[in-house]
Amino acid sequence: MNGRAFFDTNIFIYLYANHERDKQSAAKALINNASECITSTQILNEINNVNPFM
């Protein structure tokens, strides 16, 4: 998948979810294979309000 991709909150949260190894690996693969990552300020605010280490 080379190209532009919009990533939602769950993709970024899964990057830090050590208890969800399969989802973490999938999120890393998506981000690593995108040539351009797009997100929004709302997504960044949502990430700021989630504790990914729970």
Name some characteristics of this structure:
54 residues; mainly alpha; two-stranded parallel ribbon; 3 helices; 2 strands; 52% helix; flat
Layout of helices and strands:
Layout: E1 4-6, H1 9-15, H2 21-33, E2 36-38, H3 41-48
Parallel strand pairs: 1-2
Helix pairs in contact: 1-2
Structure explained in plain terms:
This protein has a two-stranded parallel ribbon. The chain has 54 residues and is mostly helical. The chain has helices at 9-15, 21-33, 41-48; strands at 4-6, 36-38. It has 3 helices and 2 strands; from the N terminus they run βααβα. The longest helix is centred in the middle third of the chain and has 13 residues, at 21-33.
User: From N to C, what is the helix and strand string?
Assistant: EHHEH
- State the end-to-end CA separation: 31 Å
In helices, the fraction of residues equals 40-55%
Q: Count up the helices.
A: 3
> Shape, please?
flat
How many DSSP E strands?
A: 2
How much β-strand is present in the residues?
A: 5-15%
The whole-number mean of residue pLDDT values reads 85
The major sheet is characterized as: 2 strands, parallel
Q: Which strand order does the major sheet show?
A: 1-2
Structure classification: mainly alpha
Low-confidence stretches: none
Précis, in short:
With 54 residues, this protein is mainly alpha-helical. It has 3 helices and 2 strands.
